[in-house]
From TrEMBL:
Domain 4Fe-4S ferredoxin-type: 43-72, 82-111
Originating gene: nuoI
Membrane topology: Peripheral membrane protein
Reactions the enzyme catalyzes: a quinone + NADH + 5 H(+)(in) = a quinol + NAD(+) + 4 H(+)(out)
Quaternary structure annotation from Swiss-Prot or TrEMBL: NDH-1 is composed of 14 different subunits. Subunits NuoA, H, J, K, L, M, N constitute the membrane sector of the complex.
Molecular functions per Gene Ontology: 4 iron, 4 sulfur cluster binding; iron ion binding; NADH dehydrogenase (quinone) (non-electrogenic) activity; quinone binding
Listed name of the protein: NADH-quinone oxidoreductase subunit I
Record's keyword terms, sorted: 4Fe-4S, Cell inner membrane, Cell membrane, Iron, Iron-sulfur, Membrane, Metal-binding, NAD, Oxidoreductase, Quinone, Repeat, Translocase, Ubiquinone
E.C. number: 7.1.1.-
Pfam family, one: Fer4_7
Cofactor dependency: [4Fe-4S] cluster
Location(s), subcellular: Cell inner membrane
Positions with a binding annotation for [4Fe-4S] cluster 2: C62, C91, C94, C97
Length: 144
């Protein structure tokens, strides 16, 4: 009769003194792997010009059909994306768009805090994608 009680207590005490694995998010955050597939970034040349040449390969290969591009041409015929959007609400973070890009013009960052209050807010435009993602949820303690 008392044996199961002692057994249960032993288990409780074992977990009570073992190393805690729960993180107090967002005060504490996991370090993700360097190859984590998070929010995309459109890369730029040192001059600040976007590397993308609007070849449409990423939009073509995307299984979720969440990349939309409208291409345009500079006076010297260099193509660039006038509009470039990724709908993160549809994206499955497979990374195919990064793999297929011939210009290394799109990368995936380690940013994983992507939740929004509306579906529209999950559609990122060219300007947003050219900026590195910022941490979304800052610890109230650290923020003071
Ligand atoms: S990660 Fe995959 S699903 Fe997301 S935009 Fe790139 S190709 Fe599409
Ligand atoms: S991001 Fe790369 S694959 Fe996609 S349109 Fe631009 S150059 Fe082509």
């Amino acid at each position: 009769m008392i044996a199961p009680l002692i057994q249960g207590l032993k288990l409780t005490l074992r977990y009570f003194f073992s190393k805690k694995i729960t993180l107090q998010y967002p005060d504490e955050k996991w370090d993700v792997a360097p190859r984590w597939r998070g929010r995309h970034v459109l890369t730029k040349h040192a001059s600040g010009k976007i590397k993308c040449v609007a070849c449409m390969l990423c939009a073509t290969v995307c299984p979720a059909e969440c990349i939309k591009i409208e291409g345009a041409a500079e006076p010297d015929n260099r193509k660039y994306p006038e509009k470039y959007t990724i709908d993160l609400g549809r994206c499955i973070f497979c990374g195919y768009c990064v793999e297929v890009c011939p210009r290394d013009a799109i990368e995936m960052s380690t940013a994983y805090e992507l939740s929004e209050y509306s579906r529209e807010a999950l559609i990122l435009d060219k300007e947003q994608l050219m900026e590195p993602p910022q941490p979304r949820y800052v610890s109230q303690k650290k923020a003071g």
